[in-house]
What does this fold into?
Amino acid sequence: MRRLALFSLCLQLSLAAHAQSATPSSVLKTPTPASSDWISAVNHSLGLTLFSDETLWDDAPAEVAKRLNLRPESTTPGAETWRRYLRPPLSLAGAPIYMLALRSEAGRIESVTVMFTNQGDHPAFAQRDTGGGGSGFVSPAAIKTFEAELLRDFKNVRQALATALPKAEREPTPAQRRSAPGQLALFTTGEHELLLHARPGNLLALYIQPTERAAAPRLSDDQLRRRWKDQVTRRANGDVILDRIPMVDQGPKGYCVPATFERLLRYAGIRCDLYDLAALGGTSHGGGTNVTLMMENLERTVRQAGRRLEAIKIKPSPATLARYLDEGRPVLWSLSSTPDFNKLADTYTRERPQDLAKLTLWTKERRQLGSTLVNDPSAGHLCLITGYNRATGELAFSDSWGPDFAERWLPSTAMQAVSTGECWVLNF
It folds into this structure.
């Protein structure tokens, strides 16, 4: 298993996907406290209209997303996500907020994430390690300054929350300390936990989640197997596609490996966050992830959830992948994502007919597409193989660049040309 670095293509496409969607953070509403109750105090401290009453978890997720001015990221049945990357960032007690995300399961809010200072979005590291216009060098002085900002921002945000929620700070549990190394501050009010986490050298984030008594139960193995099979869509033209996998938009940075892992794990009922996954994978400043390290550090989390990641060495084709996809299991795929490959995938997917008769003839004329593609190690990438068409010899794959890249098609021969031969699946 080799190191899979993220280079200019991953970042440049991500930047392009976000260029038109970026909006000033001024659209976020900053509430004015009307009283001394904790709802107004917390809303005021966050600068966000998050709480409308004493229980967040019975609010309609779409209504809360609207209050936070988030846009839909993934609307798959039973698992919806809203997200916004803030450019320029909003500020809480002087700490910049770069990203907001709201996740729901089965129509119920699961969590709200407020991402502060972090090595992926920090302007000092943008486009550095991925070759997307930066120098590729991060000075020790810049890293030292960043780490000082993390500590400062943790202290300031913690104080702001302590002021809004007097006497609500609690000692984090041993399990929370094991899963979140670094500095923690835990606040509880009603059925809500506000967990502030500063991971050394990586990130500062606030996770708003239900207390243990209010959390949804974990899916059993049988429940998950049934849910996976229910996700398989079979179309009249022969497509077999997993078209309900949650989308996770990596944002304007080289985080496609952590984002792809989050998609797979959330699909399997394992709660996670791409920023935390980036830290587990040793993602460098701005982007670049060690997949081997990611696998090693995720093993315990996946095992505790009753699952396991299995490596499979295959040539991607309908014949080799149908057994997994028919069970509703997407396949993590390591590839060389070159500009020529992506140009071909974009054109092919856009022009691909949906009618069976037309598709059969159309694909016969294009089976040799991709014969000139090359496997460039400097364009390492990770995405999900999500479908196949046995009659036409095609495969579908999905990238973590937003909804427009959720379903892309190519002849399997073209995908074999850029494949590293490394794939992974989740098992029980």
